[in-house]
């Protein structure tokens, strides 16, 4: 179902009356009330999984076929099969896989939508966010907040692929989506990012930062740090208790971006998580391991590199196979909360 509902005439009334309304740019509410406000939530997006082993060769083919100068961003978009070919993975979120080759640069721009990147494969690339160089290693999370300049470069020797998550469909609903012109990437102003020297221990923030004050003090979460924290958290939890870390802005403790949240979950071998549904939609990236998830009524099996989507208010349950698994997710929880629509339910 589309978010916009066309005005519907009341067929029981004289046509002349309906025509008069239309001439005055008026529409009867009573013909559409129950479409605008159905008795239950309606979600057009469907649960779906994209396999890394299907996607990877297509991405590498794109890297051969499409010069970066032409593409600017060489991305295959994950188009939810329920959304009629829209550039959207849920009605509010966008996801795509981006590939960059050694020596390439993707030019700099800034835009109103927020973005985050989760590195899937390869080393040696980096994203520059407002001059801050953020190395990209598998599992790293990097955010590019609204209107912050960003570009990508690659100093390594193998293709690098990452998952892009953006709030484009949501921002487009507000008719607020636009970007600056591209300009050539400039050399980064720093060779490090705040996760390497300013935010190195939980509960401590620097008195003064040497990085530009953009309102977003932390833009990169290295997987090495996140994985170690997950392992320690898991060690202190009884079997069956969920092991989840949320990515936060370390100065506020709040969400890393205005519209999008991110979490990572550690699954012990053979573990099944409690079923839960949330009013936020979520896009999952498998960082490690194998398993399957039930989303609504659909079972999706997965392994490292796969991406899958849980539309809002679908019950989600994860099961790891015979080794530990790590599931990253980004979601639209802060946007949903801002609208007073947040709810979550176990069972
Ligand atoms: C964008 O700016 C990037 O900067 C990637 O890498 C994907 C998809 C839609 C709009 C802007 C990037 C994007 C994007």
Question: How would you sum up this structure, described in words?
Answer:
With 347 residues, this protein is an alpha+beta fold. It has a single domain, classed as Sandwich (Jelly Rolls). The protein contains 8 helices and 21 strands. The strands form 5 sheets. The chain has a 6-stranded antiparallel β-sheet with strand order 1-18-15-20-13-12. A hairpin with a 2-residue loop joins strand 16 and strand 17. 1-hydroxynaphthalene-2-carboxylic acid binds next to strand 3 and strand 10.
Give a short summary of the structure.
The protein is α+β, with helices and mostly antiparallel strands. Helix content is 17%, strand content 30%. The site of 1-hydroxynaphthalene-2-carboxylic acid (1HN) has 9 residues, from strand 3 and strand 10.
Question: What is the fold's blueprint, element by element?
Answer:
Layout: H1 15-23, H2 33-36, E1 48-50, H3 52-65, H4 68-71, E2 75-77, E3 94-100, E4 105-109, E5 115-121, E6 125-129, E7 132-136, E8 141-144, E9 150-154, E10 160-166, H5 168-173, H6 194-197, E11 220-221, H7 223-235, E12 243-246, E13 261-267, E14 276-278, E15 282-288, E16 290-295, E17 298-303, E18 307-310, E19 316-320, E20 325-331, H8 333-338, E21 344-346
The protein binds 1-hydroxynaphthalene-2-carboxylic acid (1HN).
């Amino acid at each position: 179902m589309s978010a916009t509902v066309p005005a519907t005439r009341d067929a029981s009334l004289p046509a002349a009356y309906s025509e008069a309304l239309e001439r005055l740019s008026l529409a009867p509410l009573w013909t559409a009330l129950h479409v605008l406000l159905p008795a239950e939530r309606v979600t057009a997006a469907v649960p779906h999984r994209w396999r890394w082993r299907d996607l990877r060769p297509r991405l590498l083919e794109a890297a051969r076929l499409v010069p970066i100068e032409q593409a600017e961003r060489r991305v295959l978009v994950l188009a939810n099969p329920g959304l009629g070919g829209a550039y959207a993975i849920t009605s509010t979120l966008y996801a795509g896989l981006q590939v960059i080759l050694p020596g390439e640069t993707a030019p700099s721009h800034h835009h109103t939508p927020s973005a985050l990147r989760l590195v899937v494969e390869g080393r040696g690339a980096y994203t520059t966010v407002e001059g801050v160089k953020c190395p990209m290693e598998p599992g790293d999370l990097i955010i590019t907040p609204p209107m912050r300049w960003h570009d990508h470069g690659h100093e390594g020797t193998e293709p690098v692929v990452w998952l892009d998550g953006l709030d484009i469909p949501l921002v487009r609903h507000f008719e607020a989506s636009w970007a600056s012109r591209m300009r050539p990437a400039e050399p980064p102003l720093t060779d490090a990012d705040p996760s390497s020297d300013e935010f190195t221990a939980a509960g401590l923030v620097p008195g003064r930062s040497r990085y530009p004050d953009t309102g977003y003090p932390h833009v990169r979460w290295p997987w090495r740090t996140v994985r170690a924290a997950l392992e320690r958290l898991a060690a202190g939890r009884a079997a069956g208790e969920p092991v989840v870390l949320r990515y936060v802005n370390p100065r506020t403790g709040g969400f890393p971006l205005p519209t999008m949240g991110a979490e990572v979950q550690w699954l012990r071998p053979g573990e099944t998580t409690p079923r839960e549904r949330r009013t936020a939609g979520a896009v999952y990236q498998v960082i490690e391991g194998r398993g399957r998830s039930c989303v609504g009524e659909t079972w999706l099996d997965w392994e490292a590199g796969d991406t899958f989507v849980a539309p809002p208010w679908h019950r989600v349950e994860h099961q790891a196979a015979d080794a530990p698994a790590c599931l990253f997710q980004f979601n639209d929880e802060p946007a949903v909360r801002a609208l007073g629509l947040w709810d979550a339910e176990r069972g």
